[in-house]
Amino acid sequence: MLQLSRASLRETLSHLESRGLLSIKPGKGVYVTARLPTEPKQWRFENYSLAEVLAMRQQLESFAAAHAAVNAVAEDIAILETSINEAFQAAKRGDLLLVKLCDLDFHAQIIRIAGNRLLQEIIKLIRQPYEQSKTP
After folding, report:
1. 27 φ/ψ sector (left φ>0, alpha ψ -120 to 50, else beta)
2. Which CATH superfamily, name and number, covers 50-127?
């Protein structure tokens, strides 16, 4: 009736179950759940000063730098050098926006090289209030 394969239907049902919309009971059927799906938890920073958030970011980025120093391979180092060189050239031209973008890229690369996915997510969350504080 819907003209889709069983594999597509199974994948869709599995996705809806993972979001909390369905309950699949093998041999019994598929049921719509009574509860509403929950939104992913987001950290709230209203209770913390910007100084506290920045201090934590500094500690986490220091942790990331230490791990990146251990994990980095030649290709990673080349990427970091390129980012630094581009920032330097942009600064010489007075292109402060490009300097900022290079700086953000440099820090993102350090965190990527550190190889800790949880750290990557936490840093993303911690950067939000910092970036929001800089917008007019």
Report:
1. left
2. GntR ligand-binding domain-like (1.20.120.530)
